[in-house]
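## retry 2 of 3
previous attempt timed out at serialization; input unchanged, resubmitting
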Amino acid sequence: MYKSIAKSRPSLRVLWNLAVGLAAICGAAAFAQAPAAPAAQRGTVTAVTGSTVTIKTDSGPTVTLTVPDTAKVQKLPVDSTDIKAATPAQLSDIGVGDRVVAAVKAGDTPDSFVARQVILMKSSDIAAKNAADQMDWRRRGVGGIVSAVDPATGAITIEAGGKKVVIGTDAKTIFRRYSSDSVAFKDATPSTLAQIHAGDQVQARGTKSADGSTIQAEEVIGGSFKNLSGLVASIDPATGTITLKDLATKKLMTVHVTANSDIHNMPLMQAQQFATRLNGGAAAGGRGARGGGAAPAPAGGDTGGAPPDAAPDAGRGGGGPPGGGRGGAPRSAGADLAQMIPRLPKATLADLKPGAAVMIVASEPTPGSNTVTAVTLLSGVEPILTASPNGGMSLSMSIGGGAGAE
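## retry succeeded, writing output
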């Protein structure tokens, strides 16, 4: 759930703060010269040609920046919020994939600007920070389904890999919440303890007790999602929807698969091995994923830099979600499956066939509705569903990622 530097959490937060600061630096004169032009542009560099830098802005449009010799170019350390920490740089230091925020004035066209000042964050620095954050989420993170929240003490009780874990929070704890149809950290918004409810999926990072039954959280991220699993009944490519009968609720669900849906296929051998673990080492059968096909396992596994996610983009959410560790099955099964997902072969709606076994994390449906939007869809899981025929196994842990990348 989490791939690009453009979605990196540190850079998004820092560059937003810098954009606000640079807007102030531009002053009233800039607005007098170009009332309709924003005082700052921020985003990810997609091309550099001579003195022209093309960026995909965080707001969506692609714009070009002319960087004249008079423009001040500076490099900022990752996660620094103080422009005073920036060091001198040059236009030649800016490369594709880097994050920039620029104080600008209007150019000759609506999508062109002339930079007065450019603050640069190198993609390599962001990647290194994301990798460190991801490792920290794996080491000090936990995730699961909320069973209780105590507003008086700030305690959140979750079911994590078959056991209860109490997450302690205080005034210093940072809360974030995923949007209803995304587990990308860039789409998460500041939140509070009051927004966490029973049934939500959360991940927390902090100091764990020796037995892992409690954790004092520095950061908590969560959201309300629906877990589905079953066999695909039908596929409508025209509308981008599939229908399936959910094993847990026995209801027929309609699932919208969009361009933002994260789809992967688990090769048959891996699914069988995972099902064996789920059964505590017992032989796990499974006929393979009918129609799903077994794609070859990737040689590597780009985690996108998010914490063990999904994370969170520093999370698109990011690399595999932080989970409860890699201990024996079935307690850690959910966490392990979540950490596998970003490394599994990518798939598309066209790769699915009726009868394919799937597991889905989806947006929470509105009351009375059986229609959801897929956030994560994993096919090729028939051996796993055979080992857990009543829908007891889910992708609940895959929303995480806490902090770290996209």
